[in-house]
Specification:
five-stranded mixed beta sheet; alpha/beta; Rossmann fold; 12 helices; single chain; 467 residues; 36% helix; 16 strands
């Protein structure tokens, strides 16, 4: 079998990672909007090569791209927001004050007719403010209740997420924009069911914006929450930036173009979808991707690796149908629309044609997404003290980012790679670090620098995958 996409250790190691996007040249079907459809969402698709080798199995890369137009005016629909705030002991002091200010700023951005629920979670979860359609007196009430929240106890994120989901999903409709904003700075007491709740949120059209604060949260879990719900992830290094992060979320919700966006991919005759890069995917002839909300000016790429059977020279190989469905977020009725694209390739025995048919832009996009997924998987391994395997994946990811032209991401991953120990930190004694004076200085600074590098590499990779 000849492969025109470089197989790697990364592909074999991908776990439930992150939803991605595609664009590539090929035989695209014209899907201009109808008279009623404002045409704010555009779908395009391209192949990594317009040719496949005749008479043999071959790997094919496709990129499907979703583009959202800029809005001329903002006519936002009412918001249905669920706010879940970590109030565990690690939030004590300035982080708690900043989180409280951020929640108050979010409330100030809401208007009568919007709906809000607030849940806090520490040793237990507590519904501070049940989901309420706000009027002026409600806004004053929720501000008063938010001003009293305090940091204490451990981190029952699981029940916090369960409560805010219950408060929010019962008020979803075609007329409102729903979103959960989750702020956490620690590792949950119990991770069981958290990803299930994220999947439920996505299925009910309630994306989760997960904000990881500081250096102690579970970055892999927070990323999965965003991915599985069709939401987004943000690393907030300093609690002082939480207010801006909350405001950005509300501004984005006010500029949505599409909601409940789903991409369905179907391979042509004999075509196998091997993977949707950055996501767990069992090889099959069809697959779907939850993309959630899309705001004005956004571009999403989903990169797909497929396998084509051998066909006779000169035959047209039907590679892929892509069907995008979404609700118009600018329409009060939430009208449903579709976009479709078709990709086909020509089978050839001519190596020169195959070499000339490469779409470098698509192949760079594949390298970029592959490197991002490898970085997230390496972070999983670091958390499991599998440093040797993590280091190998990070080396691979750094090269992949460099090949894709993303020098900033390559530098971020390389910085993390340089900090990865060769043994668990607890096994590294003073003799490995020098004098006692040096040890005392590094013991205070090195762990935080290491975690900071890890968080930044994770954030860069989720951004590369569209989260």
């Amino acid at each position: 079998m000849r492969s025109h996409f470089r197989p790697s250790l990364r592909a074999a190691l991908l776990l439930p990672l992150l939803a991605l996007m595609i664009s590539a040249p090929g035989c695209s079907q014209d899907t201009r909007p109808t008279q009623q459809d404002p045409g704010l969402i555009q779908l395009s698709a391209d192949l990594g090569n317009e040719f496949v080798p005749a008479g043999e199995l071959s790997d094919v890369v496709a990129r499907v791209r979703i583009n959202a137009a800029e809005l001329e005016a903002s006519t936002r629909r009412p918001l249905n927001i669920g706010l879940a705030i970590d109030t565990s002991g690690s939030m004590r002091g300035q982080p708690m004050r900043d989180a409280r200010d951020a929640a108050l700023a979010l409330v100030d951005s809401l208007v009568p007719g919007d709906r809000l629920a607030v849940v806090t979670f520490d040793s237990t979860a507590n519904t501070v403010f049940p989901s309420t359609e706000l009027d002026q007196s409600d806004i004053a009430d929720v501000r008063e209740k938010l001003s009293t929240i305090e940091a204490r106890g451990t981190t029952d994120m699981r029940d916090g997420l369960a409560q805010i989901l219950e408060q929010t999903i019962h008020h979803t409709s075609e007329e409102v924009t729903s979103r959960i904003v989750l702020l956490g700075d620690g590792v949950p007491n119990d991770k069981n069911l958290i990803t299930n709740y994220a999947q439920q949120a996505g299925a009910r059209g309630v994306p989760i914006s997960a904000l990881g604060l500081g250096l102690d949260y579970d970055e892999v879990l927070m990323g999965e929450i965003a991915q599985l719900s069709g939401g987004s992830f943000h690393y907030v290094e300093d609690s002082a930036a939480v207010v801006a992060a909350f405001r950005d979320e509300v501004l984005r919700l006010e500029r949505l173009v599409a909601r409940n966006t789903q991409l369905v991919l179907r391979g042509g005759p004999g075509i196998e979808i091997v993977s949707i890069m950055g996501q767990a995917q069992t090889p099959a002839n069809a697959a779907s991707v939850t993309l959630g909300d899309i705001a004005e000016g956004e571009s999403r790429d989903v990169v797909v690796q497929l396998r084509s059977p051998g066909r006779r020279a000169g035959a047209t190989v039907e590679i892929l149908d892509a069907v995008l469905s979404f609700q118009d977020a600018t329409d009060e009725q939430g009208s449903q629309y579709e976009r479709t694209e078709f990709l086909g390739a020509a089978a050839t025995m001519d190596d020169a044609e195959i070499a000339a048919g490469v779409n470098e832009e698509v192949m760079r996009a594949a390298e970029n997404v592959d490197a991002a997924a490898a970085t997230v998987q390496a972070i999983r391994m670091i958390r499991n003290n599998d440093y040797a395997q993590a280091a190998a994946l990070l080396d691979d990811a750094s090269r992949g980012y460099a090949a894709s032209g993303d020098d900033d991401a390559a530098a971020s991953v390389q910085m993390l790679r340089e900090a990865v120990p060769s043994a668990p930190p607890e096994a590294m004694g003073p003799e490995a670090m020098g004098s006692e004076e040096v040890v005392s200085e590094e013991a205070e600074a090195a762990p935080r620098d290491y975690e900071r590098r890890l968080r930044r590499a994770h954030d860069v990779s989720l951004d590369a995958m569209g989260f």
